[in-house]
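Translate sequence into structure tokens.
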Amino acid sequence: MKKILLTVLLSVFMAEASYGSVEVVATIFPIYDWIKEISKGSDVNINLLLDSGVDLHSFQPAVDDMVKIAKCDVFVYVGGESDEWVEDSLKNVVNKNQVSINLLKILGDKVKSEEIVEGMEHEHEHHEHEHESESESDEHIWLSLRNAEIICKYIAEKLSELDENNKEIYSQNCSEYVKKLSELDSEYDEVIDKSMRKILLFADRFPFRYMADDYGLKYYAAFSGCSAETEASFETVMFLSNKVEELKLPYVLTIDGTKHKIAETVISNTKSKNQKILVLDSMQSTTLNNNTSYLAIMQKNLDTLKTVLN
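Result follows.
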């Protein structure tokens, strides 16, 4: 570990300085995309730590990542269980003026806890947590457009404090972007308010609690959002299959990046066996291309909900 730390520090001091620009490091795609929108037209240089398609729950920083974190001006991360590695990384920061932003702390009492709903698989742990009585925070905060508005405003303020020369740019970009977030939030409200159904059924993990709570949706799922399990028990599969029948649901949902095996098994255990599988994108392992954006993904999710809930 000491050898790695020495390598990191040597790399930092040997790295070429970036004069006149604000170096920002974001851990996941939604944060990266928000900052990209807020900083358009400025000298901000944004680094996304997660490679395209990598799941945030399995990410561990390489030495190059630690170098970026150590020398950047602004470091933005979620702060949940998947970011347990961050604490050690921040001990090695050589930029003493660095602004580090923990999004769970920013949201405060708006942060929800992971919950186990009826029929959901309980994670079989082979070791005890140190604080068994403490509930685990649900880290999927970006799946709430309302949270996104709060976070974007905060980030814009911090960038303005750090780089006053571009304050007007950050302020204007943030206002325009927050307006788009708010308009899409209103679309969600309208669509869901007019929907025949208010229930989602996931034969998968469920990282959408923030979204569900924002719009008054009930849900059933195989696992909680951060569950590491990939195999559902017979009891869980049959519970979900029976719910599909009971509620006459024509669709079974999964999240991005999965093989849909559990969904197929759930459907095969219904009487009709003709339900379709649809995907809601949780942005936990986003594959980047020129058209990828947070707003586009959330719009696509809304289009999927229109189908699922009617």
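Note: Residues 1-19, 124-133 have pLDDT under 50 and may be disordered.
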